[in-house]
Amino acid sequence: MRKPIIAGNWKMYKDLTEAVDFVQKLLPLVSDVSDRTILICPPSPFLKDTADEACGSNIMVGAQNLYWEDEGAFTGEISAPMLKSVGCTYAIIGHSERRQYFCETDETVNKKLHAAIKHNLNAIVCVGETLEQREKGETFKVIEKQIKVGLDKLEIDHWSLVIIAYEPVWAIGTGRTATPEQAQEVHAFIRGLLPKNVAGEIRILYGGSVKPENVKELMAKPDIDGGLVGGASLKPDSFAKIIKY
Ligand code: PEP
User: Fold this and answer.
1) pTM of the prediction?
2) Nearest to residue 22, comparing CAs of 54, 63, 58?
């Protein structure tokens, strides 16, 4: 059985007070949840305070990005050991906004994935096609390359730290959700690309305008193992409703 994960990607929103307040408000709303993993991914300046606030609870804290070197002259970057030292246990890698605005590629995604694994961080690797690629019938070709290159050179014992998020770019922040059938079709395709001996264990999350109103039907699909939620993860009550779909 794959344990579902509901992950909130806060992107570049909130200040420190709002971030800590969010955790304080979410804690009592989800304290009875044990059958799914709850994850928040705040902006990096708030990781330590949110992790401290959530310490000992069922709320995990993850980063939205990391760099692949452990340390060095890389101004502005944050490494996996740094994330671990402030209480992070997860990292999102290769979000489409990172690919679009910060020139991330499948090759850099792969380097970041290996850095996360080396330091025992759970990695949520994002893949997804643009609207143009979908309309040209290239969805499966695009996803296949993102998976093959982004998840290259993994050894069998690395896979337990790997989570995949299918996030069609045209559904992120647009209010336009993939239908459960569209999402399931791609999730099943992704699972088919994974090594046979691990495919059944890997969690594949859907992301793209997940809301309290649509999460249940998405989660009913056999290959959808959770959600990566942007906008609707910013308020404790709507995020709690998604967690308790
Ligand atoms: C995301 O940030 O990964 C995302 C899916 O955003 P939204 O839920 O707002 O579409």
Assistant:
1) 0.97
2) 54
